[in-house]
Write a structure and sequence with these properties.
The chain is α/β, with parallel strands linked by helices. It folds into two domains: 220 residues, DHBP synthase (Alpha-Beta Complex); 92 residues, Rossmann fold, CATH 3.40.50.11030. Helix 1 packs across helix 5. Bound molecules: threonylcarbamoyladenylate and magnesium ion. Magnesium ion binds next to loops.
Length: 349
Amino acid sequence: MTARHQPPEHDASGVSASILPAGPHAAAQAARVLRAGGLVALPTETVYGLGADAACDLAVARIYEAKGRPSFNPLIAHVADLAAAQVHGVFNADALALARAFWPGPLTLVVPAAPGCAVSLLARAGLDTLALRVPDHPAAQEILRAFGGPVAAPSANRSGRVSPTQAAHVAADLADRIDLIVDAGACEVGVESTIVACLGAAARMLRPGGIARADIERALGRPLAADVVAGHQESGPLAPGMLASHYAPRARVRLDARSVAPDEAALDFAGALAQGEQGAQGEHAAQSLRLDLSPAGDLREAAAHLFDFLRRLDQPGVRAIAVAPIPRAGLGEAINDRLARAAAPRLEA
Ligand code: TXA
Ligand code: MG
């Protein structure tokens, strides 16, 4: 292992992060912060990531500290291209087929660690496998190339909160805990990457995400192995980040709603709840706090809006967020997965 352990110079605690617009200056600055063991929030096409030098245990420890995340939870290592990924992970035929089909893009591959793997054991939570992703975002690519090594990055939110799809979301959660936020506007995909484990004979989906199941299966030329329900197998959590109550706003979340109570906000889809409200009651509640993920019923648009709208509806005084039924096809699988987690009983008080 070539993981580094030297104490980083940086300590962001108590100082507010600088926010720089994406570009060559921001990338150079981000690379400097990463080399010094600091934390950089970087835009990707899925959600904003909270990046640190994946080879440096102390830098990775800062991620867990800033997020308040349980440290058994392994992180995704982000690299610039497939060649860089193959330095750290062993790619079987499935992994190669998927990488060639979808990288750069919203796909994470879990593969065995290579002998030369530089990703720290802390970032891997002690596992002999690792999660790798090549993001498809010019700012992320610019930062990865300027830095030159793998960047460990979970979503840039406090643990258990909704993932950030805008720099302002990151600042709201983490500004006083990190060094730099690189701002490239809203994330295009809006839900996290699809995670597929390529560890043995059968490729397996660990988390639905920005690439639909059907597209993965088309690239593989066969169906994925049986599902890991909510990231759990009988043996325990396979993707430990898939805790039931992830992605939770403060307000309760009520799924498959057909109507909206006066003390609820509405997360609508294709106008379903708006139509329900045109009847007798509740006009003002619905109209003052109702956001439609996609009035046209487009699941891509809905995914891109999901986390931002959950944040915007999560207002003081809102008891619950009523969510319209959302089809499960395509990106609907990832949207429904995130909503089910947002609605699950909370681990903390
Ligand atoms: O789109 C994304 O994937 C975003 C952006 C920033 O790239 N990242 C993200 O990271 O969602 P995070 O840390 O929130 O989720 C990573 C998931 C967790 O569920 C974790 O358990 C799983 O990946 N994971 C990481 N390494 C793993 C491994 N070796 N085996 C199984 N699951 C792993
Ligand atoms: Mg996350």
